[in-house]
Amino acid sequence: MTRYVMTIDLRRCVGCQTCTAACKGANATPPGIQWRRVLDIESGEFPDVRRTFLPVACMHCGDPPCEHVCPTRATTKRADGLVAIDYDLCIGCANCVMACPYDARSIVHEPRYAYGDAPMASEAARFDPARIGVSMKCTFCKDRIDHAERTGLVPGVDPEVTPACVNSCISGAMGFGNIEDPQSSVSQLLADTQHFRMHEELGTEPGVYYVWDKS
Amino acid sequence: MKPFNPRAVELAAPKQQRNWDWRAAANFICGGAGGSLLFCAAFAGLDLSATRIAVFLGLALIGCGLTCVWFEIGRPWRAMNVYRHFATSWMTREAVVALVVFATGGLALLTGSKLLLILSGACGLGFLYSQARILAANKGIPSWRHPASVPLMISTGLAEGAGFIVGIAAVFSSDPGNTLLFVLLALLAVRAWCWRRYLAGLTATGAPVAALKVLESLGPRFHTFGNGLPAVAVVAMLVGLPGRSLMSLLAGMLVVASGWFLKYTLVRRAAFTQGLAVNHLPVRGRGPSGPAAKPGWKMMPGGNRG
Q: Count of domains in chain B?
């Protein structure tokens, strides 16, 4: 059994947004659309105030509400735990956008470019018409995960088959791997630390674990 | 849609959903009323011509709602994928029930068959139920996913259908009978109770502050114009005050308009996303962990304040 999950050590995250930029570079998302974001949360009351950096994206839930509401089976959960969208089946009804409690999905109805109506050369080269008018979100860089299947490389260990955001993290806050493998780095990190999953009370079984203290 | 560029500190807080606009709201507004109108038409006991008008109006409302939503989806020419790649979502069920509604309702319109009328009424009720479940299945919007939203959507749909029937009877038939008026009165009471139960439930379990503010501001107007005034008009008719036809029409229109405003508010104005939260603030250096942070919420699930 394989269940790929991500770990994010909130103690280490410095809010540099490198993962955001790496995701944008790897997936060529249009302006205004970020599959991965790092939120800056200010909490408490003066003088006891806190600032926390919270990286968020699709949680690749074990029981994804987006899959339940999809009217065309465009959204499916794969055997390895990744939640995927078939852009050719999606009708862009946005029901999945409403179902996701993590604000992870978005729909772009017309092409958007960084500078006006005309794309830059790099944007034109990477423009994907299949992603217009349909739901999209973080894929956990599924092409890389699929590449691991073919090559025998290990996601979370070998950079070629690890999500771009995890590779880019400058502080080692992000981890990726198979939680079903007790020897994987994510399993060992979770065994040694206290962690939570966001909005777990909604029964979505998210696949992203936030580490907040040692055990 | 206008571009939405929140500040960094606002990104975690619940935001008003911006993907379903008035066209999606129109599907719930028209579809729910239309489905319920078909159901009420099957059992109202109106004469044939008035029944035909009610069935035609019910089908037209459902068709109007579905057309609106067709114009909203990102890939309208792929809409048939709902039938080609059959899923078990409530949106799929709504689409399937719609086909049966149009088939049975259309035949009932042509033939005037009582059996087909009842069948189309049952399907209309199924359509209304599917729409209520579509909203409730969306876990990302706390004001929709609350279980009490299902009876609220159904009760307002039924009241709207009865309101339409009373209005149609006033205009196209001799007179809405007292039984019909008693049914409308009962449905208004049920709708008012469902609204109170919904709002109390949402407040108790926790919801985004902005959503509660919108819903709480709706309550008094909804009760006054949507339930109170029509109920007074119905009682006046039942005790035999003059102007029965005009009062029937006005009561029906108020019930329908208030139900539509309620649904518009629910689908658009009170539809705030879940937002993001940190269950435990991380330990940094030698300091302790901090309490949970849940921007934009009145209450954490379980009663903790965020």
A: 1
Best to test chain B binding among A95, A135, A193, A205 (most B CBs inside 10 Å): A95
Q: What is the pTM of this model?
A: 0.92
> Is the CB of A40 less than 8 angstroms away from the CB of B11?
yes
Nearest-angstrom CA–CA distance, B130 and B92: 9
Is residue A153 within 8 angstroms of chain B, CB to CB?
no
Total number of domains constituting chain A: 1
Residue of chain B whose alpha carbon sits nearest to that of A51: B281
Segment A20-43, tens digit of pLDDT: 999 999 999 999 999 999 999 988
Domain of A66 in residue numbering reads as 4-214
By the 8 A CB rule, do A136 and A107 touch?
Answer: yes
- Please indicate whether, in this complex, the C-beta atoms of B78 and A91 are within 8 angstroms of each other: yes
pLDDT digits (tens, 9 = 90+) for B77-91: 999 999 998 888 999
Looking at residue A48, which CATH number applies to its domain? 3.30.70.20
ipTM of the complex as predicted: 0.93
B276/B297 Cα distance (integer angstroms): 10
The pair of structure tokens assigned to A184 is: 């994987």
Residue in B91, B273, B274 closest to A71 by CB = B91
